[in-house]
Amino acid sequence: MLSFAVFFPIAAGLLLFLVPEQQRKLRCTLVELTALLTSAVMFYLITGKQGTVEAAFPIVQNLTLTFSLDGTGSLFAGLAAFLWPIATLYGFEYMRHVGRERAFFALYTISYGVTLGIAMAGNLVTLYIFYELLSLSTLPLVMHSSSPEAIRAGRQYMAYTFGGAALALMGIIPVIAWGGGTFVPGGALNAGLFEQNPVLLQVLFLCAALGFGVKAAVMPFHSWLPGAAVAPTPVTALLHAAAVVKAGAFAVIRVTYYTFGAERLFGTVAQAVLICLAALTIVYGAFRAVREHHLKRRLAWSTVSNLSYIIFASSLMTPDGMTGALAHLIFHALVKITLFYCSGAILVQTGKTQIESMRGFRTKMPLVSTVYTIAAMALAGMPLLPPFLSKWTIGNAALASGTPFGMVGLIAMLISAILCAVYVLYPAFFMLFRNPDREEPDMPGDPGLCMKVSLVILALTILLSGLFTNRLLAFIMTQAQM
Question: What letter would DSSP give residue 258?
Answer without folding.
Answer: I
